[in-house]
């Protein structure tokens, strides 16, 4: 069990977006979840820019990746198999949540940075949940 704060290079804004290097990134409206991959003790959660969204700025990133390093906890809930493809790809909310409350997998806390022993939780419109506890999360982007 980690005893220090998870390190991140981003902040959560309004539980649907993140701020990276001063740039507001709308995960709910502008990006689609494309998958999760594991490599040893690390997990990568990947998103790509939503296609066909006229509202998306030309300078928006083409893709982004959350890289979870030194993972100590992971929890997943499958989404509704009958859900629309858009809902299975659409992030509903993102939050840091206390690892001491791992029996609660549907709560949101409005905080920008992780506190001691927090996990990161991703909620999707189809009901899918990804919850990961780790030492560091690095958000990387591609133009």
SSE layout and pairing:
Elements: E1 7-8, E2 11-13, E3 17-20, E4 23-26, H1 27-30, E5 31-39, E6 42-49, E7 63-69, E8 73-77, H2 85-89, E9 91-98, E10 118-124, E11 129-133, E12 136-142
Parallel strand pairs: 1-12
Antiparallel strand pairs: 2-3, 3-4, 5-6, 6-7, 7-12, 8-11, 9-10, 10-11
Structure description:
This protein has 143 residues and is mainly β. The chain has one domain (7-142). 6% of the residues lie in helices and 48% in strands. The protein has two helices and twelve strands. It has helices at 27-30, 85-89; strands at 7-8, 11-13, 17-20, 23-26, 31-39, 42-49, 63-69, 73-77, 91-98, 118-124, 129-133, 136-142. The strands form three sheets. It has a five-stranded mixed sheet. Strands 8-11-10-9 form a four-stranded antiparallel sheet. A three-stranded antiparallel sheet has the order 2-3-4. Strand 10 and strand 11 (129-133) form a beta hairpin. The longest helix is centred in the middle third of the chain and has 5 residues, at 85-89. It is globular and about 40 Å long. The termini are far apart.
């Amino acid at each position: 069990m980690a005893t220090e704060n998870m390190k991140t290079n981003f902040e959560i804004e309004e539980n649907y977006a993140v701020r990276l290097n001063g740039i507001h990134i709308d995960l709910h409206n502008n990006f689609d979840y494309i998958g999760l991959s594991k490599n040893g003790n690390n997990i990568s959660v990947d998103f790509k820019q939503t296609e066909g969204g006229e509202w998306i700025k030309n300078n928006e990133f083409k893709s982004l990746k959350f890289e979870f390093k030194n993972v100590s906890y992971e929890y997943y809930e499958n989404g509704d198999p009958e859900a629309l493809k858009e809902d299975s790809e659409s992030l509903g909310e993102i939050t840091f949540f206390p690892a001491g409350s791992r029996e609660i997998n549907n709560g949101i806390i409005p905080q920008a940075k992780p506190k001691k022993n927090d996990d990161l939780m991703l909620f999707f419109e189809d009901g899918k949940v990804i919850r990961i506890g780790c030492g560091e999360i690095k958000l990387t982007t591609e133009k």
